[in-house]
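LOG
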Amino acid sequence: MNDKGYQQDTAPSSASASHQLRIAIKGPKVGEPRVSASDMAAIIEHTQSALKKVSQVLFCKQRKGKRRDPEEIDKACELFVVALERGSTVAVMELGEQPTQSILFGEVGQESLGAFIEGMRGISANGKPTSLPRGFDRGVMKSISDLGKVLSHGIESVSFFSSTGIAGIEAHYDAETHSTIRALLAEPQEIGHTSKTGRLEILDAHNKLAGSLWEPDGTRWICIFNEEHAESIAQNWRRTVTIAGKGKVEDGKRIIEVESILTTDDEFLSTQNQGELFAFWESVSLEDLARHQQVSPAPDLDELGDLWPAGDDPDKFLDFVLAERSKRRSASNGGGTE
């Protein structure tokens, strides 16, 4: 055991009370101390998952500029069952080995455990918080929501108590808390007014005027336009633009309700000033398109050949294309031969 009182191996010591977490389970189908093994396993599994995700938010996402090892942080939040107590059913757990760089990291396990219980207590006490608690994100909320499945198995509440050195850290998870968390997960995450620059493409006007904006890093934003944007969309389709509007994340999708579109494509601006912009639906010859896009012929065919994947046979690809064309022509001619 080192100066901090931690064991050097992974398994915790039952004497390490400062790292303990107690989970009390109450309900009509919970005896003293008797509970379904599958329910107990589910409660511990989802609690463990939520705790580790809290630690990742606290020590990997929020503390930039310091070197951290996600695996070491996960290890510091590993829970070990050391006892079952009577009363209701109470599982006593302890944290695993803590990082040796405690000065740099802080007390990873204790801080994560404290943030988890404080966050749970805040959600259950405040009904519907306006923002997620410290250390919480949608991943943490999802793990806690999954824990709530046991509430339909004759369990009325799951209580968490931690002796992390701060008196009275206790939180309760019941049907009301579960409903609050589900509501928070279902609600879109409002980003507020934002602007994004990228390539505008994949227009969809079947249900509403919408398109996709692709940022340089591959992030996709679904753009919801107004009718007044129709002409600007036609001019800027497949060009680089800056779009401003109200942003949100809903069901994992990034959405912007567009207020304005600003062209940032230098080539587009230059041709627009010269009066050479092609109409949106106008057919353009290959020569005019190449001139418009300032594309020059390839000086060396070997350069084009280098772009072809090494493992692919171009002759087989050409045979495939010709065979597909033949099938389509045959189908359009009523199945007759050419």
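LOG (cont.) second protein
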Amino acid sequence: MKQLIYYPPGCYGTFVNWICDTNQHVGTDDLPFGEFGNSHKYYNKNPGLLQPKQRELFLKSNRNFGVQRGCWPFNVGIKLLNLNQDPKFYYLTCKQDIAGIIDSCDQILVVHPTVDSRVWWYQNYCEKVVISQQIINQNIPLIHKIFENCLWMTEHDPVLRAKHHLDLQLMHAGFKELYSKFDKNTALDFETWQLRQTLAWELHSQGPDYYQCWQKISTDFDKIKFVSLEQLRDNFSSTVHEILDYFDINTEIVNSLDYIESEWSQRQEHRFKDRTVNNIVKSILSGQSLDWTLEKLNLFDEVYIEKILHYEHGVELLPTNNWPCNTEQFLRIIK
């Protein structure tokens, strides 16, 4: 059997793979969770189909591989970038990618974001998608060929990692314009407001297809199972049962699902960030009083708020390194 979990990085593919691969009651020592609430304790033991030769063997061999996982697009396995701002880029790229592997797989599960989990997914990608030095050491020399321009993914500081990733895109016009506007040669020298503004532009440049494509793709492949982040969050036990049934897995882990859900959920601090961000944006647009001090927003929440306000509602903000914590303060930084 060739069973594949296909997912954008940050959508818990490793966590779901661990669930499918664990045939026992689960206690504290068995949990896969690593730094930032990701599942990289399991990742370090099982990095999935990371190398091109592994993916090629998986698709061509008749071996029983069990459940494996691979990031989108399957033939690349790293972050996709819509450099030409094509409104159908993600839909067409992933549809073509899946079409190229579907006949070689017995079953494919897609775990994906939606418009209602786009901030949650963005936070996960920025914070949790870190490749450990252990993985690099275990996969030398091939891993360096894959990530020769992506060693930024080994940086554990999410903000510093974001700066490095922006610098990798400097050859593209939109980034050149912003860097020139700020009179900077590297994002490492950005002030906070400049970094926030550039990251908001990067999000905008990808277009809504970035997270909306999965609904369209699901209508093209009726034999593939699609699971959204919200399903995993809001109906954890029933969704896991559906996944295990889909892969025809009978495992003792089902007796530990309440415990696993509790341990997983308390480590996912961003799972309701879409609701938080949307409420803040709504209060700003309506002028309704709201204080979000207790929400403890980070830079990436601020990026998404600026992205929605500026690119979806035409609201321009004055430069500020200190993000406001209530509506009254925020209205003062609107141009």
